[in-house]
């Protein structure tokens, strides 16, 4: 795969304080967002602009299944075990060969100051969360989950028997669910 050309002055990478944005996004996204939903939202936003994003969360990497749910095309997800994510973000800023092409998303004053020292544009997490929602339009709510299936009396009795319980001891079941 060919790398995209990085022109001077073009912001091609967003470095995001994940916990900061997660907290800020609660005011803008439908339902309390989790890391997976946040990564998906940022992924769609970044893909629509042809840019990359690195989201850094505090703490150790989660187990493989959770991490897989967080993976999105164009979004790198990193963790900072044993130290604050802010320090890792500052390391990324300091190591950047072209820092003016990084946009820092954080509400932490020290992180933004580190970015400004190297010429990085900085955005408060709250403003970025609002931007994500405004740019996405009406798709903000997560997709509706399928309705929870209900069991009929025969199925309920079968499960009760399977667990060694008296089939008559289960809750009454109507077509609308337990009564």
In brief, what are we looking at here?
The chain has two domains: 13-139, Rossmann fold (3-Layer(aba) Sandwich), CATH 3.40.50; 147-179, no CATH class. Helix content is 39%, strand content 16%. It is built from seven helices and seven strands.
Folded structure, characterized:
- Helix 4 runs parallel beside helix 5.
- This protein folds into two domains: 13-139, Rossmann fold, CATH 3.40.50.1000; 147-179, no CATH class.
- The chain is elongated.
- It is an alpha/beta fold and 179 residues long.
- 27% of the residues are buried.
- The longest helix is centred in the first third of the chain and has 13 residues, at 35-47.
- The chain has seven helices and seven strands; from the N terminus they run E-H-H-E-H-E-H-E-H-E-H-H-E-E.
- Strands 3-2-1-4-5 form a five-stranded parallel beta sheet. A two-stranded antiparallel ribbon has the order 6-7.
- Helix content is 39%, strand content 16%.
- The protein has helices at 18-25, 35-47, 64-70, 85-95, 109-117, 125-136, 153-162, and strands spanning 13-17, 52-58, 75-80, 102-105, 122-123, 173-174, 177-178.
């Amino acid at each position: 795969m060919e790398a995209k050309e990085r022109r001077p002055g073009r912001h091609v990478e967003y470095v995001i304080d994940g916990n900061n944005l997660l907290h800020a996004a609660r005011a803008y996204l439908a339902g309390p967002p989790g890391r997976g939903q946040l990564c998906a939202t940022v992924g769609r936003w970044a893909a629509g602009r042809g840019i990359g994003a690195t989201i850094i969360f505090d703490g150790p990497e989660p187990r493989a299944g959770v991490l897989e749910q967080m993976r999105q095309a164009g979004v790198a997800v990193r963790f900072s075990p044993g130290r604050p994510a802010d320090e890792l973000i500052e390391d990324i800023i300091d190591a950047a060969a072209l820092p003016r092409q990084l946009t820092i998303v954080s509400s932490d004053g020290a992180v933004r100051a580190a970015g400004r020292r190297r010429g990085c544009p900085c955005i408060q997490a709250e403003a970025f969360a609002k931007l994500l929602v405004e740019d996405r339009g009406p798709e903000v709510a997560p997709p509706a989950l399928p309705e929870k299936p209900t069991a009929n009396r025969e199925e309920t009795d079968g499960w009760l028997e399977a667990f060694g319980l008296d089939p008559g001891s289960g809750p009454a079941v109507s077509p609308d669910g337990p009564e």
